[in-house]
Amino acid sequence: MTLRVASMDAASWRALLYVPAHVDRFVTKAAATSADAIILDLEDAVPSDRKDEARTRLADAIPSLKAVEKDVLVRVNPGLARVADDVTAAIRAGADAIMLPKADGASQLRLVDELMAEVEVECGRSGVTLVLLIETLEGLDRVDAILNASHRIVAAALGAEDISARIMAQPTEEALLWPRQQVVYACARAGVVPLGLLGSMASVSEAAQMRDMAARARGFGLWGATCIHPDQVDPLRAGFMPDRSELMRADRMVRAFETAQAEGRGSVMVDGQMVDLPVAERARAIIARTDMDLGDFR
């Protein structure tokens, strides 16, 4: 999968931790986790009567997280008026990305893109990106057009609970697999990062279960996922990373294939599997997405 240039940083996100922006102690605790990115939430985690307060607190919360080298996203509220206020405050405070809920049309994305550009000029900034939540049936139907509506879009995820409610289904792996895969394939076509798990995190409490759920999601083409509690961060990061045996097998495949190519052959057998160009490219991608030093294991 070839990513947009702007998507390269998002490729490293394995665990993104939601934090209600109006609760200082949660922001402080999030800073101490190993989360790859922190999502300061202005939407679902904030009561309606505290929305303005949460938006105001971005001015302190974002710099405090940037000081410990966290990528910071802000999930804004839906609706043009609130999007405008939230986006403006987030960019002014230094957010790396805006997370847009209820993304359901290309025209909506173009308006948000234009707004972001205006605020960037005002603040002397550039490069603020977008992460989309596909949470409506309309958005799912238009997902390709949506993901190509702005160069700022670096990642997208299916809104499992919202989609499940719309079709009156339980948010199980079986019910969500088809729409989830639609988003995964659309992300691959657009060159953006697909985020999410196959089922609902609400039914998982054990760290081992969450790690296994993340590993299963990785096998279906997802690159990382959001979470709502610090204890979920490490299991997610572990599950979205290849283990030692998978990494070493990928390394053997790449090296054997390169040797075969140098000898004028287009394929080679490795561990009982034929390795040709597509298989070798997938093995290279596995290696590229890990921060482990292969030299430690060879």
Descriptive report:
By secondary structure, the chain is an alpha/beta fold. It folds into two domains: 5-239, Alpha-Beta Barrel (TIM Barrel), CATH 3.20.20; 244-296, no CATH class. It is built from twelve helices and ten strands. The chain has helices spanning 24-31, 51-66, 80-93, 106-123, 137-141, 143-147, 160-166, 173-190, 207-219, 233-239, 244-262, 277-288; strands at residues 15-20, 37-41, 71-75, 97-100, 129-134, 153-158, 193-195, 225-227, 268-270, 273-275. The strands form two sheets. An eight-stranded parallel beta sheet has the order 7-6-5-4-3-2-1-8. Helix 4 (106-123) links the parallel strand 4 and strand 5. It is globular, with a radius of gyration of 20 Å. The two termini are 27 Å apart.
List the helices and strands and how they pair.
Elements: E1 15-20, H1 24-31, E2 37-41, H2 51-66, E3 71-75, H3 80-93, E4 97-100, H4 106-123, E5 129-134, H5 137-141, H6 143-147, E6 153-158, H7 160-166, H8 173-190, E7 193-195, H9 207-219, E8 225-227, H10 233-239, H11 244-262, E9 268-270, E10 273-275, H12 277-288
Summarize this structure as a short list of keywords or feature phrases.
about 50% helix; about 15% strand; 2 domains; two-stranded antiparallel ribbon; 10 strands; 8-stranded parallel beta sheet; alpha/beta; disordered C terminus; TIM Barrel; single chain; about 300 residues
